Fold each of these.
Amino acid sequence: MTQAVTGTLKVSNDCIADLAGYAALECYGVVGMAMSDAENGVTRLLPFNRLRNGIGVAMEDGRIVVDIHVVLEHGVNMSSVSANLVSSVKFILKQIAELDDVEVRVHIEGIRTR
């Protein structure tokens, strides 16, 4: 038997970024997270232990905004992968962190060929 526990749940931005990163990697067509260096104009693929560097979490107008910077696989439909990515991240944040009002923005930083 389960009972509701009263109280509040606080989730850190790093935790949200980690959840979003792992959800993103499960999506078909996503190679990995990316981080752009504005000074040099270079985008690099991040290793799996640094996923949160490719994800920004902020609060705008009372809602959480998650910016995900990804590298996609060559030949995939970018629109479909982006829609799937948004759906997956929203689902995992709702299920695990109990966050309902989340806006997910996908930034495609590059395409990786084999």
Amino acid sequence: MAKTRRMISENLRLVDAVIEVTDARIPLSSRNPEISKLIGRKPRIVVLNKCDSADESSTRRWVEYYRSKGIPAVATDCKAGKNVNRVLPLVRESLKDEIAKWESKGMTGRPIRIMIVGIPNVGKSALINKLAGSKRAKVEDRPGVTRGKQWIKLDLGFELLDTPGVLAPKFDDRDAALCLAFTGAIKDNILDIETLAVIFIRKLRSVSGAPLTTRYGIEITDEMSDGEVLEAIGRRRGFLISGGEINTERAAIVLLDEFRSSKLGRITLELPED
């Protein structure tokens, strides 16, 4: 992590703006809070990726939240390419005053240089690949650019500084670590799978229990514990072992797999007010 922080800090002077990629289902937990400190006053654009798996109205709230803080944001599905074509124009718009200064100095056509950052599993590589397409070729060497860094020419007069290394999540935040485990961004063995599923049910019920009712056809009452909800899912799916006991481990595996594959529907586990 220290090496990545140092790399980002050293390369910031070479770029005009930073694109931060997050997971739209868990916008808080899928970012390292140190990024704001690292970037400082450098213009930043937030990409809420995997938006097709997130609740649409919640994603709109996140976009508006960032905009209210003066940070441009866009929701994307980088795997499918949805809204990726909006990313670079948004960067250009955020830099319009700076571009006007360049042009007043006769620097018309100067490329806009960007860096993309994010923790693992948010879609940073997918975004880079979509933006770069077949243009993953080095730009000519320049003073101040050390060997090993790669400048990739993009459309619309942009150049992307592609450097190795990604930011680590904030593992010392238990809630963030759990959200990352829910999405599969970190290994399930943070807890045993049944405990993780029960905590996921608790988290989901705090947002809306409707996806569980719709997907599994179970009635959930306020009196039911989260463990009883997991048992109800197992019973409904017929996950029984000898003696009629419910196989809650199998139910837990299916529940988390179906959340990650969006079979539970479009779900956002964190909202701006969190």
